[in-house]
Structures are given as C-alpha cells and as structure tokens.
Amino acid sequence: MMWVVLALLINGDCIEAKKYNILHRLVRESGYEEAATEIGDLIVTIDRIESKNAYLYYNLSALFCRVQLDSNQHNALYAVKYYV
C-alpha cells in the first residue's frame, strides 16, 4: 500500500495507483462510501487523461463489479488477485 501513496504523491493522476487504492478500500477496509467517492475521482481523471480509451473504462468497471464478498463471507482478495 505504501507504493500507492508514493505514486499518488509523485503523480496525483496515476490511474493504476488510484485503482489499487480503491480496491484496498473495498477489500480491506470495507469503505464503500469512500470507494464510491474515489471511483468518481478516477472517472474524472480518466475523462481528462484517457478519454478515448474505452478499453480502460470497460476493464475498470468489470474489475469493480467482480470484487464482492460472497454469501459465505470469504475474503475478496482471491477475486482481486484473479482479475487484476
């Protein structure tokens, strides 16, 4: 997680760092409201930097849709490792 903070300090628009920060919030902290806010910030960043990259939009949306806990409350890290 430290590299995410460093990457965001160096470049506040780093899409990969923002993606991993959102995943950390969803998986480790269960901070759904904060993650929703950060997803909005990520969309604004992508609109500004990579606005014509539909593949990036699709892959990020598919990733965030797949990250969820199942009914048995298993750790969602397996899903993150599998799909990242």
UniProtKB/TrEMBL annotation:
Keyword vocabulary terms for this entry: Signal
Signal peptide: 1-17
Domain of life: Eukaryota
Protein name: TTC21B
Organism expressing this protein natively: Bugula neritina (Brown bryozoan)
Lineage: Eukaryota, Metazoa, Spiralia, Lophotrochozoa, Bryozoa
